[in-house]
Amino acid sequence: MATTAHLFEEPFDADEYIERLAWRTPGGGSKGGAEAFDPKRLLEEFQNHIEELKQLDEKIQRKVEKLEHQCHREAKEFAHKVQDLQRSNQIKEAADIIQKLHLIAQELPFDRFADVKAKIASKYHDLERQLIQEFTAAQRRGEIGRMREVAAVLLHFKGYAHCVDVYIKQCQEGAYVRNDVFEDTAVLCQRVNKQVGEVFSSPETVMAKLIQNIFENKLQAHVKEKLDETRHSDVEQYLKNLYDLYTRTTGLATKLTEFNLGSDKHTFLSKLIKSIFSSYLESYIDMEREYLRTRGAMILQRYYDSKNHQKRPVGAGSIQDLKERIRQRTNLPLGPSIDTHGETFLSPELVVNLLQETRHAFERCHRLSDPSDLPKNAFSIFLLLVDHLCVEHIDYALEIGLSAIPSPDAKNANLYFLDVVQQANSIFHLFDKQFNDQLMPLISSSPKLAECLHKKKEVIEQMEVKLDTGIDRTLNCMVGQMKHILATEQKKTDFRPEDENNVMIQYTTACSKVCAYVSRQVEHVRKSMDGKNVDTVLTELGIRFHRLIHEHLQQYSYSSMGGMLAICDVAEYRRCAKDFRVPLVLQLFDTLHALCNLLVVAPDNLKQVCSGEQLTNLDRNLLHAFVQLRVDYRSARLGRHFS
């Protein structure tokens, strides 16, 4: 029979229990049965069962001891709780009494109740100190409930504010373990925000006080340390640090707005930020301008030093300067031009550096300027960019480029001004992009917009005058080079060959060399210009090219075979003119080709040819002038056709 505790449940009869055990044992029945009585077997069964009963007894005893221990512990804990509740209640009662006595004592006359008032005040402060100590201890133990109870009692005491201060101080202990004060602050505030509502009756006030304490102590000290160490030694790093610290502080403030800090938390946080940065922000734009002024000058000087170039004073008022300006604006030969050896004195790397410095300055200006000062500050940065990039670099390169343009009568002149034009245009596109992308958003809604647009227009117009002057003089040089080719290569006998029957009908050497030169210059113009400027410049070059050839052809007299050669030349010039892709230029050469037909047409057909579609609208004096170039003009009495 299995030995279990339920066998001993009440009512229990020992004799019946033994009888039942013997009966169930084979050979153990007292009245016999199927098996004979076996005393040994019965004894063995009793002994085994006694061992089981001993084990069961030990097991039950251990369980009893465990339950007694648990009961004792719970009784002790319960007693402690009762004591705590009683003590807590006595504190509350004592606090309530002393608070009322303190209020009453305020009304008592000092001369009669000085001792009483002093005792009440002493007891008041003692109890207040005890409560704060109890709150501090509870906070260290992490007992939120006890903290809440003590805070509720202290709420009516003058020391309640001190209780909050203690809480705020202890919250920050061990909170700043990373090397990132902003991230640590965000984590701390997130943690405290969850707890403060469980402890204080006005959690938003405590939370606001915590944040104020952090800003006025931890953050302010961090900002001061970072900025003061570079303010006078490294202005560039100082400006970067100021921008970074201000950005991270405002970013932290944005995170903190998710907490309940009272009715006007945005104004509250703005004031805290201002209290930290106001002294730095007041002098920001002056330091920004001075840094940009110095940095820009250094970038420029470093570039010209790398070119081993000493900048020439522009507009200094010297006699040489006066001569140079006259030479630039006229075609008078006032001495040799400057040889720049093909150097444009324009640097993409320099431009990128200046624009990058200005971009950073605009970003800092946007972040660090007071909204009312932002347009004015951004405009002052823009003026520095104009001075460094447009005046000191682009305009100076244009001046040097103009000085390097040779006179129209120079031979084999290298025309680098178009390279200056190309690079100046590329640079100005970058300047214009920064103007639109970074400056415009800062000034678009302010009166400074008109001022900025006017300044930009003024700069563009000043550069365009120099570009136009340089392009005009470059085109004159091109025409001068064509003149030189024609003067040296074109022979009078080209159009009056001695042997009329032994002439190969093709264009002349002079024509071939002029066309080759013109084709190179057209390609140069296309690479140097963009947009409508290409057509404008090529139109002007084409008109001057046509005028030169027109005037050149009128210097010769033509035999019949010479006239055919002139037509071949003009046909080649016309083929060259197609490269201009300007209808007007092609039309001019079409008309010139038609005029050259007057050099070879039979006398009887002159009138008919002059009435043709391409010549009918031309001045008859012009037609007559071309007919007069024929060697047979007098002998064939061709003048009668124009009388």
TrEMBL record:
Keywords (A to Z) from UniProt: Coiled coil, Exocytosis, Transport
The UniProt record lists the keyword Ribonucleoprotein: no
Source species: Astatotilapia calliptera
Coiled-coil region list: 43-77
Pfam family, one: Sec10_N
Name the record gives this protein: Exocyst complex component 5
Annotated family: Belongs to the SEC10 family.
InterPro entries to which the protein is assigned, alphabetical: Sec10-like, Sec10_HB, Sec10_N
Record GO cellular component, one term: exocyst
Ranges of residues in domain Exocyst complex component Sec10-like alpha-helical bundle: 93-641
GO biological process: exocytosis; Golgi to plasma membrane transport
Lineage per the UniProt record: Eukaryota, Metazoa, Chordata, Craniata, Vertebrata
Span of domain Exocyst complex component Sec10 N-terminal: 39-90
